[in-house]
Please model this.
Amino acid sequence: MEKQKSVALLIESSNAYARGLLSGIASYIHEHELWSIYMIEQERGAPPPAWLKDWNGDGLIARIENDAIANVVRKLKIPLVDVSAARKVKKIPWVETNDTAIARIAFEHFRERGFVHFAFCGELEFMWSIQRQQAFERFVNDAGFCCSVFTPNTKPTKTLSLKRERTRMAKWLLALPRPTGILACYDIKAQQVLDVCREYGIKVPMEIALLGVDNDELLCDLCTPPLSSIIPAAHQTGREAAAMLDVLMNGGTVEPLAKLLEPLGVATRQSTDVLAIDDPEIACVVRFIRDHCCDGINVKDVLKTVPLSRRVLEHRFQSIIGRTPHQEIVRRRIDRVRQLLVETELTLAEISQRCGFQNQEYMSVSFRREMDVPPATYRRNARRRYEDDPTNESS
Model:
């Protein structure tokens, strides 16, 4: 009988993303092989535990986020997988959230609400925050807009410095144009922004719309107003890490070494539930498309809601939203198709009918044009990831 493998997990359980990783690892273990798990309670950024340097088990999955842990891990002679964006140890398998995709989803979330002013609030000590900032700025700049950035000068450790940082943040927030869409690097940072907004009388979401990352449901619901947040595929990332380690412990190799997983979407709550559109007629059109996109509407139906010619409507809509009314109708229908493909057992014909397409063939062509894969392939690739992730009920 094969000896049970002993696996160490160097992953904190103090935040939603890390708990998602652990959940995914547990899911893989339960489905494939019962490993003996060694894990202790640990806070984020903590030095390596004393037992790590003498660990003689069969494998390790770790968030290698500081040099101290990296130095110990490099000396280990066992298979290991990294689940941190810091990339402190090269040439080992690595699986993480796609931070560029997170930034893209955030930008699209604000643009579809009509925002033309953007900002990012991050943390210099985390590589994933820096990557999200850089990608978000790139999407904003490529679209012809500007992005304001706030990052702490240093990591506050004393009451005085905490107050100083809050004052700096308040000055930054008060100087932003109204309205501005802010992407915070993660939910905890977004909560800090909301606290400052409340203290200084900045209205959310009317003046500042705020989007976090991680979809920590408890934290998001405790925020005032409740916080919209991007849902990372943390659970699936944990599963992938466990699968990689399983291969390595059985003498195999992992190719490619790096794997980035797409986020699952946005859990929209009150903090971004707003339209930042000064043009009342275009705002009316956006609401109409949002509410009726799956009712089989076309641009002629849209024109009945506003006293504009098609040429004027399309010009003004394009300049504000960045798409034509027809493109916006199709985009929202495709979003609904994606949701139904993953969440339901409906046939493609039933989905096409529910989403306002003329027939299944037209839906399939439109879907493939937007997503680069046929609907059936998208369902196969995405459903398991969605259903395995415990955050899916809020997406």
